[in-house]
UniProtKB/TrEMBL annotation:
This is DNA repair protein RadA. The lineage of its organism: Bacteria, Bacillati, Actinomycetota, Actinomycetes, Mycobacteriales. Belongs to the RecA family. RadA subfamily. Residues 329-441 are annotated as: Lon-protease-like. It holds the Pfam family ChlI. GO terms for cellular component: cytosol. Residues 42-193 form the RecA family profile domain. The keyword Aminoacyl-tRNA synthetase does not apply.
Amino acid sequence: MDEVSVLAPVASRPGASGLRSGTGAMVPTSPAMPLTKVSSVASIAKTTGIGELDRVLGGGVVPGSVVLLAGEPGVGKSTLLLEVVRRWAERSDTDRALYVTAEESAGQVRLRADRTGAVHERVYLAAESDLATIFGHVDQVAPTLLIIDSVQTMLAADVDGVIGGVTQVRAVTSALTTLAKTSGIAVLLVGHVTKDGAVAGPRSLEHLVDVVLHFEGDKHSTLRMVRGIKNRFGAADEVGCFELREGGIREVSDPSGLFMHHRDDSVAGTAVTVTMDGKRPLPAEVQALVATTQMPTPRRAVSGLDHARVAMILAVLEKRCNVKVADKEVYAATVGGMRTTEPAVDLALALAVTSAHRDKPLPAHTVVLGEVGLAGEIRRVTGVDRRLAEAARLGFTSAIVPDVPGETPSGMRIHRVSDMGSALRAAGLDVRRRGEPDAPG
């Protein structure tokens, strides 16, 4: 091929005005624009009116975006979304919300809406599973927010495959994504999860949507948490806290009361720490109970903590600190149904077990941070400054932290420790029984 013809402008080549032979290229209907001239006004997030959800979304719902909310059955996804559509409809006279359900009848959804106070004249409800019919409802209602409950129960009639299968889920999600991008309607999809907690369906489902949220909660607890997994419009490591009640779901902007048992006096076997869930510092109370037993194999019961790390902490206390618990039953748990596995909880667990073993409480209003190594050393953890600031806000006046430089909140006394021995002394737990050797360090 002649070099001049290769370098010639597209407009001067044969077929440039239409479909190019052999390449399939078309003249674009709208020309490419310089980035400086592209308006971002249409992509500004609109608040849902629920602060904890807006926090995870990155400020609110962006028009034309697709959000996937996944969670286990019965965790409260539909209850949360009914609250979302009610507050969305209350925003202005021009905002309408269309709630499409395929898992429940319209009457069932209305009963829940009555119970939770989510009834509003600009909230529209359709019990439908056919995708083409849903598009017809969208044309009639002209909503600015569309809820699909759930994406695994929708059917694209012109696509092969069973409802909930890989082909159907991909086709339904692709069609709804195209609808969102072309119309500017914000779409929220409810998704099922597998027994392992992952989003059910093809992996491409998470790639097609803009935001992926996980709605988590224990059926034995009222605590619910919305966790960001993917977010094209904000941070993907935020978490929102909610409390599920008989009358609906309520956001909890300050969850400290859920994870701690407030009391005037300290109790033996308890220690307070601050965990980091994404960027959010959350206080947590760790409790331990050490009891004598006649059983040849003492019991180890753990709730809300990592079993492996609890076993490691007990071994370190036995070997390095002469805290003899090998022949005793040990129970360790968190308060309020919190689940945490981060190493920053190690030192709080170690001091709680030691406090329970020696039946001596930690000093009042003391928070404990730090990772414990196998040699008994206290290792640094991330976000110490933010954790201490949150502890100071909650009224804690003393802290036991790793021996690394950092800022000290005003009015808080800091004990920087390098090993378990110095941590026990800082906590006032180095009082030994008769015949016990000194703790190391």
